[in-house]
Amino acid sequence: MSDQYQALLSDSKKRALAYLSHISARRVFPDEAACKGLANFDEALPEKGRDAHETLDLMDRAGSPATVASMGGRYFGFVVGGSLPVTVASNWLSSAWDQVASSNVSSPAVDHMEKVAARWVLDILDLPEDCGVGFVTGATMASFTALAAGRHHLLKNQGWDVEQDGLFGAPKIKVVVSDEVHVTILKAISMLGLGRNNVIRVPTDENGAIDISQLPELGPDTLVCVQAGNVNSGAFDPIGEICDIARASGAWVHVDGAIGLWARVSGEFSALTRGMEKADSWATDSHKWLNTPYDSGVVICRNKVPMYRSMSTTAAYLKDEEEAAKDIVPEFSRRGRGIDIWAALRTLGRNGVRQIIERNCSQARFFASELKGMGFDIHNEVVLNQIVVSFGSEDQTERLIGFMQEEGTCWFGPTIWRGKKAFRISLSSWKTNDEDIRLSIMAFKKARAVITEET
Ligand SMILES: *Cc1c(COP(=O)(O)O)cnc(C)c1O
Per-residue pLDDT tens for 386-438? Predict the structure, then answer.
């Protein structure tokens, strides 16, 4: 038995190391031939089991070339990040453990390690130490979980028990979001039965932050979703000021800090992050800027009780004592995602996390100034790690994106900014170094020449 693990894990390790050692040399997005090779997977379900080594071999032969090289330093698409070496290793070891992270009965080790991870997350993000912390798949589920707690709280204050009686006939919740709200917040709102059509969108300024002068009236029936780190521009809403208004009115403030919550580790960004600790709930990702493997996000609530009440498997609404991990997040059985967070934080330390955040932001500023010098239009104030760029007309911008994606040195995707086609560059990987930026800028020079020539 152990021989089987020995041979297979060695095989997997050998292949993983080969994959990672070539990652910086290969094109970032797979070429057409590699994608065509995926047809090798199109077999009928085998009646008789196949050899495990041969299965790994197929995965590596057909799968590896068609992956996106986000583990290299030149993937700037969406907001992705890579995985720190220690987190790939901790992830493997925890797969070997195969623990259920529901409670201390299902796994004392995971339960304990996740409690440490939770304490460290609150510490490094400088949030109150008695907050509730849950480990989920990403910011989408983190916001879903936090907004479920908010829904519970607001309805309870109006004498309605939503967990028992549902939403039919419930008092209405007023949902206020930024006009630049991330699509996953709207998804969470729809999953919670609050209705996409019911949201009030607050206009934003030119950098994509809420214009506070246009904030509607907030009350004890209001759920306000603000963001720390606009997915395009990196802008922060005036969260502290909104929290002050919300506190006075009894509204619940939720912060989508998928990217920007991590800016709290550096004093460099204190003007942006100040006051955020006054919110009621926060969502963040660890698979983005903390550079842990997918999938991993964190939900944090100031008050643990509405978390338990909205997510408990038992009749937790009857009691206030601390519940198990399964009672504060949607999943009942799940992997111990907090382990990779623990491993990342322990290996990097506060300083190491700060260095990644500050380095990526300084790379973003440099990248933006180089592009600007080359005649590109930079549309945002580069306050964090995100750059919104266009080149000439919308048509030229589109062709430039196409050229760059085809050319392969780096990868980024299109976006719509203030109604116009643009593209977004996100610096969120621990792996990105000066050479990656230099090579990417050279590719941009080539693209600029070709697109200008064509026009
Ligand atoms: C990425 C992102 C999300 C969604 O996070 P997932 O981890 O993909 O669920 C939400 N909000 C913002 C601002 C993001 O950048």
Answer: 999 999 999 999 999 999 999 999 999 999 999 999 999 999 999 999 999 99
Ligand 1 midpoint to CA 327 (Å): 23
Report which protein residue has its CA nearest ligand 1's atom 15. 231
Distance CA 360, CA 433 (A): 9
Q: Is the CB of 138 under 6 A from ligand 1?
A: yes
0.70 exceeded by the pTM?
Answer: yes
pLDDT tens figures, 257-308: 999 999 999 999 999 999 999 999 999 999 999 999 999 999 999 999 999 9
Average pLDDT over residues 316-333: 77
Whether the CB of 337 sits within 6 Å of ligand 1? no
Residue with the two structure tokens 């004890």: 220
Measure the CA–CA gap between 91 and 420, rounded to whole angstroms: 41
Substitution candidate for ligand 1 out of 285, 360, 386, 388 with most atoms within 8 A of CB: 285
pLDDT bracket for residue 205 (50, 70, 90): very high
Could you tell me the distance, in angstroms and rounded to a whole number, from the CA of residue 234 to the centre of ligand 1?
Answer: 12
- Convert the chain into a string of H (helix), E (strand) and C (coil): CHHHHHHHHHHHHHHHHHHHHHCCCCCCCCCHHHHHHHHHHCCCCCCCCCCHHHHHHHHHHHHHHHCCCCCCCCECCCCCCCCCHHHHHHHHHHHHHCCCCCCCCCCHHHHHHHHHHHHHHHHHCCCCCCCEEEEECCHHHHHHHHHHHHHHHHHHCCCCCHHHHCCCCCCCCEEEEECCCCHHHHHHHHHCCCCHHHEEEECECCCCCECHHHCCCCCCCEEEEEEECCCCCCCECCHHHHHHHHHHHCCEEEEECCCHHHHHHCHHHHHHHCCHHHCCEEEEECCCCCCCCCCCEEEEECCHHHHHHHHCCCCHHHCCCCCCHHHCCCCCCCCCCHHHHHHHHHHHHHHHHHHHHHHHHHHHHHHHHHHHHCCCEECCCCCCCEEEEECCCHHHHHHHHHHHHHHCCCECEEEEECCEEEEEEECCCCCCCHHHHHHHHHHHHHHHHHHHHHC
Angle at 29 between CA 26 and CA 33, to 5 degrees: 85
Beta strand 297-301 with 377-378 is unpaired
If you take atom 2 of ligand 1, which residue's CA is the nearest one?
258
Residue 433: count of CB within 10 angstroms of its CB? 14
Q: Which of 230, 259, 276, 282 to mutate to test the pocket of ligand 1 (most atoms within 8 A of CB)?
A: 259
